[in-house]
From TrEMBL:
InterPro entries assigned to the protein according to its UniProt record, in alphabetical order: Troponin (IPR001978), Troponin_I (IPR050875), Troponin_sf (IPR038077)
Annotated Gene3D superfamilies: 1.20.5.350, 6.10.250.180
Self-association state and partner proteins as the record states: Binds to actin and tropomyosin. Interacts with TRIM63. Interacts with STK4/MST1.
GO molecular function: actin binding
Gene name per UniProt: F6RZ19
Lineage start: Eukaryota, Metazoa, Chordata, Craniata, Vertebrata
GO biological process annotation, one example: cardiac muscle contraction
Family: Belongs to the troponin I family.
General function of this protein: Troponin I is the inhibitory subunit of troponin, the thin filament regulatory complex which confers calcium-sensitivity to striated muscle actomyosin ATPase activity.
Keyword tags: Acetylation, Actin-binding, Muscle protein
Keyword Ion transport: no
Cellular component, GO, one term: troponin complex
Chain ranges passing through the membrane: none
Name under which the protein is recorded: Troponin I, cardiac muscle
A Pfam family it matches: Troponin
Length: 182
């Protein structure tokens, strides 16, 4: 089935889609940066250190250190949760793969095992029946086929000498002619 769109048209559409996707991605990136700037402006007020005394600056530093510690604790907790979640996701993926049965199979070696040995390995001590596959085969009598075609054993050299020359060809001609005339 041939496509109704030509190759040049496909290429044009693909380039247009890529250009639109790039434009959307850049716009999304700008929106993220604006959201980040707005959030930081909202959470972190501008510091005014001009005209503060030494004790006021020390109090400001203590407050900032306390806030940094709180944020660092939150970051550590969030990081621990993320690590826990990624481990759990990895374990669940392994369980899903095991349930599906799609795991890497090891390369198997060919082993010659008889049917009896295989059943003994599978069934253990329960295996009592022997698997004699030849027992139920039909027997063919060779003697009947030999009686149908009697083979004459003779000296082949005499036969070759008798058939050589014109007399041999005449005998073959006469032999081929005689069954039709009868």
């Amino acid at each position: 089935r041939k496509s109704k769109i030509t190759a040049s048209r496909k290429l044009l559409l693909k380039s247009l889609m890529l250009a639109k996707a790039k434009e959307c991605w850049e716009q999304e990136h700008e929106e993220r940066e604006a959201e980040k700037a707005r959030y930081l402006a909202e959470r972190i007020p501008t510091l005014q250190t001009r005209g503060l005394s030494l004790s006021a600056l020390q109090d400001l530093c203590r407050d900032l250190h306390a806030k940094v510690e709180v944020v660092d604790e939150e970051r550590y907790d969030i990081e621990a949760k993320c690590l826990h979640n990624t481990r759990e996701i990895k374990d669940l993926k392994l369980k899903v793969l095991d349930l599906r049965g799609k795991f890497k199979r090891p390369p198997l070696r060919r082993v010659r095992v008889s049917a009896d040995a295989m059943l003994r390995a599978l069934l253990g001590s329960k295996h009592k029946v022997s698997m004699d596959l030849r027992a139920n085969l039909k027997s063919v009598k060779k003697e009947d086929t030999e009686k149908e075609r009697p083979v004459e054993v003779g000296d082949w050299r005499k036969n070759v000498e008798a058939m050589s020359g014109m007399e041999g060809r005449k005998k073959m001609f006469d032999a081929a002619k005689s069954p039709t005339s009868q």
